[in-house]
């Protein structure tokens, strides 16, 4: 049985799409949902989906090994970031080489990096008058949105599209593709 841990800081719609994708499977399970935000909507989704949820604070995340120890003790095989808003520290990245992925709501390398998250991304895309946006799924390294790209998908934009319209189009791509890309990745894990 392969185990996945999902990190999220907000609503958790991607976390829910991933949980539902694997719900009927006996070879892969979503073992944990972790968040830094005690008000995150993902906590209610975890409760409804019967997935254990763990809330941690900045001190626990950056000054202790509690999160790393939890992932190791739970024998997590793949760490999935799904709208997680904090920089993953090196010790965590090094514990999961090529086994930590993130989804970014734009076509990296553009519109990425510090400060580029959530609505800020879609506002920048609209302000630039881009004809397309999309998603990037990538391995996580020490730098925001800098890891090796695993998958990208695009959506066409119209001049009249607002940042909210772009967000809707991009989230549809996220929910369609992230679970499938995760499935393909973890199904190829040998050990
Ligand atoms: N080491 C890594 N950590 C994280 C990565 C990564 O690639 N490497 N990806 C991010 C997710 N992300 C974009 O996909 C992202 C999230 C947040 C930020 C950001 O600027 N955050 C703010 C704080 C925001 C807040 O606390 O609400 C900041 O750092 O000032 C940029 C990109 C997850 N972690
Ligand atoms: N740079 C990171 C970033 O902006 N991530 C984005 O946060 C949203 C979380 O939505 P969700 O909580 O409904 O899954 C998603 O659109 C994800 O791409």
Major sheet description: 7 strands, mixed
How many helices does DSSP assign? Answer: 7
Say how many strands there are. Answer: 7
CATH class assignment: Alpha Beta
Q: Record the strand order, biggest sheet.
A: 3-2-1-4-5-6-7
Outline type: globular
Low-confidence stretches: none
Order of helices and strands: EHEHEHHEHEHEEH
Number of domains: 1
**Rg (C-alpha, Å):** 16 Å
Bound molecules: the ligand Nc1nc2c(c(=O)[nH]1)N[C@@H](CN(C=O)c1ccc(C(=O)N[C@@H](CCC(=O)O)C(=O)O)cc1)CN2, glycinamide ribonucleotide
CATH fourth-tier homologous superfamily: Formyl transferase, N-terminal domain
Q: Provide the structure class.
A: alpha/beta
Distance between the termini: 11 Å
User: The CATH topology, please?
Assistant: Rossmann fold
CATH architectural designation:
3-Layer(aba) Sandwich
Helix content: 25-40%
Active site: 104
GO molecular function: phosphoribosylglycinamide formyltransferase activity
Family: Belongs to the GART family.
Binding site for N(1)-(5-phospho-beta-D-ribosyl)glycinamide: 12-14
Briefly, what is this?
The chain has helices spanning 13-22, 41-48, 58-63, 66-73, 90-95, 119-127, 163-187, and strands at 2-7, 28-35, 53-55, 78-81, 100-104, 132-139, 149-156. It is α/β, with parallel strands linked by helices.
SSE blueprint and pairings:
Blueprint: E1 2-7, H1 13-22, E2 28-35, H2 41-48, E3 53-55, H3 58-63, H4 66-73, E4 78-81, H5 90-95, E5 100-104, H6 119-127, E6 132-139, E7 149-156, H7 163-187
Parallel strand pairs: 1-2, 1-4, 2-3, 4-5
Antiparallel strand pairs: 5-6, 6-7
This protein binds ligand LMY7XDAE and glycinamide ribonucleotide.
Ligand LMY7XDAE binds near residues 88, 145 and 147.
């Amino acid at each position: 049985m392969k185990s996945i841990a999902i990190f999220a800081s907000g609503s958790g719609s991607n976390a829910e799409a991933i949980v539902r994708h694997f719900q009927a499977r006996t070879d892969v399970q979503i073992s944990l949902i972790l968040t830094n935000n005690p008000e995150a909507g993902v906590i209610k989704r975890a409760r409804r989906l019967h997935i254990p949820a763990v809330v941690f604070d900045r001190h626990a995340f950056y000054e202790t090994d509690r999160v790393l120890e939890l992932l190791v003790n739970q024998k997590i095989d793949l760490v999935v970031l799904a709208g997680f808003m904090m920089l993953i520290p090196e010790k965590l990245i090094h514990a999961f080489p090529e086994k930590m992925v993130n989804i970014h709501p734009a076509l990296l390398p553009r519109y990425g990096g510090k400060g580029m998250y959530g609505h800020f991304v879609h506002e920048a895309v609209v302000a630039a008058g881009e004809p397309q946006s999309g998603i990037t799924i990538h391995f996580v390294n020490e730098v925001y949105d800098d890891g090796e790209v695993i998958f990208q998908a695009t959506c066409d934009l119209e001049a009249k599209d607002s940042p909210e319209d772009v967000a809707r189009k991009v989230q549809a791509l996220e929910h369609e593709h992230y679970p499938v890309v995760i499935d393909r990745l973890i199904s190829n894990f040998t050990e």
